[in-house]
């Protein structure tokens, strides 16, 4: 699945990337395509991290959110030596996204890491690759190079990139 297919077929998109790779511009642009932004990405329920997502997924409409469960799977072990999210909870989350006709969007680093990349950037990007490979067995995953989002489409000038056929353009500048 690519981003164009995800925009057409999905009602839920979860955007995630290593720290230092911006997600907010893509999330904002997806909101302009009818996706509602719904989630405080930094808050995990202390007993059941998937609970806020189950509540969100019960709402109608198209949703875009940042995947703090995935973030915790990667950064918990890197920063604290353990994750507050179990693999069972992460797989439950992935299956819930899939059941809501959703996909995970994995933003990867451009050819050159961001200038303000954390010290664990290389370890985090490797961990994200492993996590998304595992989750892709339960939910569609779209991998996008963040550098490609900054490159203009030749036919649409410096601020536009075509993502959903000829009618819809996603502004990414």
From TrEMBL:
Residues 146-173 are annotated as: Disordered. Residues 148-164 have a biased composition (Basic and acidic residues). This is Uncharacterized protein. It comes from Streptomyces cupreus.
